[in-house]
Amino acid sequence: MPESNTLSGALPPTELTQTAELTRPVRPESIYHMPVASGSVPSFTSTTSATNGKPKDYDMAEGDERGLSHTDSRYARMNRALFLFAATAAVSSINYGWIIGSINIPALVIEECAGGPMTWTNGFPSCIPMSSTLWGLVVGLTPLGAWAGSLLSGIAADRFGRKRMLMYNNAFFVAGALLACLTTSIVQLAAGRFVSGIGCGIAANVVSTYCSEMSTVRSRGFLGGFQQLMILVGVFLSQVVSIGLSKAPLWRALFSISAAIAIVQTLLLLLIPESPKFLTSAGRLDEARASLQRIRGGMDISLELDDLLTTVESGRQNEHIPQPTMWQVLTGKTEIDLRHLVFCALFLMLSQQWSGAKGVMFYSTEILSDRFHLTADEVKEIPTIAQLLTLGIGGIGAVAVIIGMNILDKVGRRSVLIVSSFATSICAALIVVGSALDIGPMVATSMYLFNLVFQAGAGFIPYLCASEMLPYYALGSISGLATSINCLTLFVVSFIFPILDKSLKAYLFVPFIVTNFITCLFGVFLMPEAKGKSVLEVVDEYKGPIRFVAGPFVRRKTPSSPITFSPPKVLD
């Protein structure tokens, strides 16, 4: 084997091994430099280049004789290949949305036998009658399953790869769909929802990881909200199809479509590349180079590949260094006190689910049927006005995410969160007023606005913030905890929402006026702003205990420069 190997996206693959000492091309002045000296522990340093720490506005340069552009692929814009690969992976997110949205419109037909008395055909009942409490439990078992899936997803994706894990995960979608569509009892329906939920939890984490590992600086914002957008697309599509499949026994076919989506995606996944970062960490460097080149098209990937190798090497050299536990990160017992940033990451994932938005997504048909005083005979005439209005609520959510994704990098995370959560609180109050005054159109309009303003900001910002605020050594454990909090909160909200509806009636949304206003106050006083900043800069500015970091009475701190991270140390 040669004494050294030079890695370049423009050169043919060379023989590389996991233990080989790699020699890379000389790098130009870079924005993030991570020097690794032989026999020493690497330090992580952020320096400011002549461009003030921001990437140049690279344009496509004339290609060389091998057809490769001299453009640095790290700062590439979204291209067709990247979009198609991300969209293929995000079919799992569409399935996620389908599963949580398909239960809404046919709810009354399934749980209350609104289509007529229960009859049996070929061994299958036309409905599964149950109380509102049991229905809330059945609906809530999907996020509970998602919590279980999220706990498994990280380890499994690191072992099998992002692409293969998405393929394996489709088995949960197929099994859950079959259990639900063939159900003859409450227990079987509940089991189907739970198994499908496991698939949702795995999909949420793996799709997010796959997209982030393929993204560049310029595509990070779009791909960060892409998963939430695809979930809402799935919700909308499920509600469109539900209009024609809400009668008995057609609602069974509605649940089975999730299995068809999973099978189609499994075939499509054969056509996309594995994550270059995963391949690099697994020592499959030739495959990593080919995958990255396929994603970036004709751009020069040499420096981006060099960054991946440096990251993997530094991680291996740090393997002997004890990593801080989750408890040590939570209590600030690390060299850099991350308590405020950790609190913010956890609170945002909690606030996303206590907003009441998923209650609207799960139960809007039942709420609107009650607010418009639909009789039993009117409920049988599908589609009802409540079902048609629910269809619009799902569609407006997807539009809202697109709007939010386009304004986020211009306005900033904190400002968007404040406006979004405050407006959501106001809309919740309008729903209460409309319900109390018995004005059905006012309730419906307010629910539309509620979903619009929530999904445009507070709905997807929590998914972005952990990776923008936390250093790598804390990101894995805290992201897992945040996802668990998110799923468990959704389970609680999904379970108690129909109970609250029966007990509070017109005042159902009063608790959500309060919760969304608390989120608004969090944005005003506690929310860090990560717009235009690296993780290092965010940590330097907001490190320390939980405290007010914004607002009229807080003096802004000027970040030090340069910012340096050493490997994590645990304090006594």
Number of helices: 22
Give the helix level as a range of percent: 55-70%
Radius of gyration: 25 Å
What class do helices, strands and sheet pairing give? mainly alpha
Q: Termini distance?
A: 47 Å
Spatial strand order of the main sheet: 1-2-5
Task: Estimate what percentage of residues fall within beta strands.
Answer: under 5%
Main sheet characteristics: 3 strands, antiparallel
General shape: globular
Query: What's the helix-strand series?
Result: EEHHHEEHHHHHHHHHHHHHHHHHHHE
Write the layout of secondary structure elements.
Elements: E1 32-33, E2 44-46, H1 80-89, H2 91-101, H3 107-111, E3 120-121, E4 124-125, H4 132-160, H5 162-181, H6 186-214, H7 220-242, H8 251-269, H9 276-281, H10 285-296, H11 302-317, H12 326-330, H13 339-354, H14 357-371, H15 376-380, H16 385-411, H17 413-436, H18 440-455, H19 461-469, H20 472-504, H21 510-525, H22 535-542, E5 563-565
Antiparallel strand pairs: 1-2, 2-5, 3-4
Structure overview:
By secondary structure, the protein is mainly α. The protein contains 22 helices and five strands. It has a three-stranded antiparallel β-sheet, covered by helices on one side. It has a two-stranded antiparallel ribbon with strand order 3-4. It is globular. 48% of the residues are buried.
